[in-house]
Amino acid sequence: MDPLMLMLLVLLGVMIVFAFINGRKRKKAMEKLRENMNPGVEVMLGSGIYATIVSVNETTQRARVRTGEAVIEVHTGAIAQLVPTTNAADVAADESVVAAAETGDQVAENNATETPNSANKP
């Protein structure tokens, strides 16, 4: 058997092993997602819509979700991921960063409007 053929077979074997490993990972992630599909949990659907689970019917594989005022029924496979919950401290930190960024933007805008001809000066 020539070395090139041997290398190709080894490469094929490695690719098959990685495919099995990746399949197991996806299966575990889906099982974890299904275990955590409980009423009151916020989720993101495959279409990008954020909603809160109202009820889940395991036999028909359907879930009722509320988004805003609307309640819709979707297949459980349409639920792409659970939305992680945030702590109050994280929200406060994010708000302070946003406030600081907005203040910085306003200062930059004020400087731009106060001296419009400063770019033309040597």
From the alpha-carbon coordinates, what is the Rg to the nearest angstrom?
Answer: 26 Å
End-to-end C-alpha gap: 75 Å
Q: Any idea what the shape is?
A: elongated
Q: Approximately what portion of the residues adopt beta-strand conformation?
A: 15-25%
Please give the oligomerization state of what you see. single chain
Structural class by helix and strand composition? alpha+beta
The spatial strand order of the largest sheet comes to: 4-3-2-1-5
Number of strands: 5
User: Approximately how much helix is present in the residues?
Assistant: 40-55%
Which series of helices and strands comes N to C? HEEEEEH
The biggest beta sheet is recorded as: 5 strands, antiparallel
Count up the helices. 2
Pick out its properties:
122 residues; alpha+beta; 5 strands; elongated
Description of the molecule:
The protein is an alpha+beta fold and 122 residues long. Helices cover 49% and strands 23% of the residues. It has helices at residues 3-35, 88-114; strands at residues 42-45, 50-57, 62-67, 70-75, 79-82. Strand 1 and strand 2 (50-57) form a beta hairpin. The longest helix is centred in the N-terminal third of the chain and has 33 residues, at 3-35. 5% of the residues are buried.
Summary of the model, kept short:
The protein has 122 residues and is of the alpha+beta class. It is 49% helix and 23% strand.
Structural topology:
Layout: H1 3-35, E1 42-45, E2 50-57, E3 62-67, E4 70-75, E5 79-82, H2 88-114
Antiparallel strand pairs: 1-2, 1-5, 2-3, 3-4
